[in-house]
Task: structure prediction
Amino acid sequence: MIGSVLVGSNAQIVDVILNLHSAGYRVLDTTWGKGNFWMPHQERWQVVGLDIEGRPGILARASYEALPFKDRVFDAVICDPPFLGSGGKNGLMVGKYGINTSMKALFISLQRGDGEFYRVLKPRGILLFKCMDTVEGRRHVWTHIIAPSLFRSFRLRDLFIRPNGVTAIAWNWANQTHAKAMHTYFMVFGRRKQRPGPALAAPLMTLL
Result:
């Protein structure tokens, strides 16, 4: 039985989720990064990789806001954008995941990508969104709660939690007032039959 808490590498977890939810094998990874979602033996999935940076292994350098593909050609789309707003130009986490100027900028970008994800997915296609909650300006940003309002062309179908498996170092937490997030979410969205009109889109400022 597959539970809602999955332990393993990102690649192992993605493989489990796609086996459970994807109706086909053609997958678009819109945020390829270093290709950490894919193990060498995952030959079952016909993966096309994109990234806004020139990364090894990608088919093209492109943004998910303007996907260079025809309509309804993929069974699954994966999106794992960076959730760091800073970290230093040469920081380890920045080099691995990249950065965004702010969470608001990220959410606006995801809203723009919503229509493109919908367009390139087949009618039974899924959007797999990996995210984490964060703190920006000493304020919690509950990304996994906000996400369903960003992807208005989709319905939330399933949610998985991956524990990070590390212990928080408390060197700067003398005045800690909330729990440190030690997990990430994998959210599975199903494609709606029709895209909702603009009136149903939640104003971004009400989400932050």
The chain has four helices and nine strands. The radius of gyration is 17 Å. The CA atoms of residues 11 and 40 lie 10 Å apart. Residues 103-120 form the longest helix (18 residues).
